[in-house]
Amino acid sequence: MPITLYHHPYSRAANVLWMLEEADVSYDLHFVDSMAGGQKSPEILALNPMGKLPILTDGDQVVTEAAAIGLYIADRYALGRLAPKFDDPDRAPYLRWSLFAPSVNEPGSTAKAAGWDYEPGTVGWGTHDSMLDAMESAISDRAYVLGDKFSMADMIFGGTLRALLMFKLIDPRPSFTAYAERLAARPALQKADGINAAIAKEHGIER
Fold this sequence. Notes:
By secondary structure, the chain is an alpha+beta fold. The chain has helices spanning about 15-25, 40-45, 65-75, 90-115, 130-140, 150-165, 175-185, 185-200; strands at about 5, 25-30, 55-60, 60-65. It is about 50% helix and about 10% strand.
């Protein structure tokens, strides 16, 4: 059975599409009209009780949460290529920065944008400046998170960074913009962006 990605071009599923293209696996897209509340339909809630995208099905397996989907795809279909093998020392920074994106980057940027008042020691993302400095440390002196080797970590961490830059939720430090430009040059990302744009046009939701 083919992989199916439950997808909307303006959701995190757009980034998962890039992951699938980089992994070079066959997949089907199932459009979910999340702008009309389709993500709360019984069909979607049966797969993800959170009622949100992305959702990936692979045979009988159901995976939700964009970072988890990326790690699953890389381990199952591109181990040793997009994911370091389990005994590879690169496995540690690979996991570190892959999980930094949803656990630090996203909530830390949301907290800053929303003006949340909190004690940095009580939350996992600390201060906004320390978050930015940590992000920069991952990429400032190398092409990708793992040095010269592109990996799924760049799609998870880098995909989040691209979105934060796009929505002006983080300062466009030179290291951030240069990294985003390197990612944007990848053919698989360009193809995924084209597919997302075509789907938006097909459904009359272009921005």
